[in-house]
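Support request from a user on the community tier.

User writes: "When I paste my structure tokens into the form, the page sometimes reloads and wipes my input. The last time it worked, I copied everything first. Here is what I submitted, just in case something in the input itself triggers the reload:"
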């Protein structure tokens, strides 16, 4: 067997250290890759879950302006806004996507003295970008080792 291949009672071990170069299918041998792009990311479900919803009580106002909405983040999608005073849907009176952290923008509708319940979905753009980075890194590692060809 080659120098970097060892057999014992547990099985076959290829590469004795992370710096030892290995490859398959005739590609140039390389050492084990390492880097931030390989970091694990949280599980992604691809659909809205209760855990990804934010529910915030907001004091509405008279006309256009920013309203304090502690807990909302830039990019969160506003799913519903319910006026708790008269139990009506006032979603159309607020921005569809949060543009300022801990705030929601209200349009010209007069809701003076009313409390509204804002339901928003957490922004998942960052998670998708992290998932894309990880998939690309895994693909590059598999191509580099000769495990997959990478192109037709």
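"...and here is what came back when it finally went through:"
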């Amino acid at each position: 067997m080659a120098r970097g291949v060892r057999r014992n009672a547990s099985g076959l071990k290829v590469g004795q250290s992370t710096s030892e170069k290995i490859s398959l299918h005739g590609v140039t041998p390389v050492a084990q890759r390492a880097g931030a792009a390989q970091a694990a990311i949280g599980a992604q479900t691809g659909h809205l879950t209760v855990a990804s919803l934010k529910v915030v009580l907001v004091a509405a106002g008279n006309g256009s302006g920013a309203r304090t909405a502690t807990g909302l983040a830039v990019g969160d999608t506003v799913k519903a806004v319910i006026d708790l005073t008269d139990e009506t849907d006032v979603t159309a009176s607020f921005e569809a996507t949060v543009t300022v952290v801990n705030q929601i923008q209200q349009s010209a509708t007069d809701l003076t003295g009313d409390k509204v319940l804002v339901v928003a979905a957490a922004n998942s753009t960052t998670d998708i970008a992290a998932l894309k980075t990880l998939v690309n890194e895994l693909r590059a590692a598999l191509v580099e080792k000769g495990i997959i060809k990478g192109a037709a």
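Agent notes: The reload is a front-end session timeout and is unrelated to the input. The two ends are 32 Å apart (CA to CA). The mean pLDDT is 82. Escalated to web team.
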